[in-house]
Specification:
Blueprint (H helix, E strand, L loop, with lengths): L14 E4 L3 H11 L1 E7 L6 E6 L2 E6 L5 H14 L4 E10 L9 E9 L2 H7 L10 H14 L3 E8 L10 H6 L4 E3 L2 H10 L3 E11 L8 H19 L3
Parallel strand pairs: 1-4, 1-5, 5-9, 6-7, 7-8
Antiparallel strand pairs: 2-3, 3-4, 5-8, 6-9
Amino acid sequence: MSTHINAPKGAIAERILLPGDPLRAKFIAETFLEDAKCYNQVRGMLGFTGTYKGIPVSVQGTGMGQPSISIYATELFKDYEVQTAIRVGTTGAIQKDIKLRDTIIVNSACTDSAMQKTRFGDMHYAPTANFNLVKTADSIAQEMGIDYTVGSVTSCDMFYDPKESWKTWAKYGVLGMEMESAELFTLAAEFNRKALAIMTVSDHIVLGGQTTAEERQLTFTNMIKLALETIIKF
């Protein structure tokens, strides 16, 4: 057991999906995994382990923001020896050629987080996904025929940003804004593990508009299938 995950050794698979919302973790487990069993309910942050195409896979809610995912990813890597982690979630698009419901395979994550400043001081670390995971997800997404783009996002500390910093990130080619990927990539590097993030575009910060609940369900399903097909290769 760890401080925030009430699971015995061996209860969590080496491969794991990390949605922010614990109810999404429950949905993934019940919809896509066979013989899924709940291993964690501490603070309502649900975690499950089952199998996908015969391969053990876990799914763990992480909460919102980098401090929250940092807690769960650290304990998963350090205490439960998770080897491969894919964050699955939503993002707000900041490029005009990215459409609502598109999928973004995240190969790097910028950030304004004070957590990186605490770690690196005046140095500037570049949080990056595992290349082989990116390459595999790219190939599978082509096979699935879904609308997707490979590129960078920004992991922000503030959801409601009064400075509208997205405009600067957009100028430098960042595709979307979210709140967790940079910390996951950084921790994967620290613990020598593999990590990736796959995002569904749920709203458009530049053009306006957001997906309906039904549209989010469909595109979320595509994203999870892509993530699962990718993670079982490792």
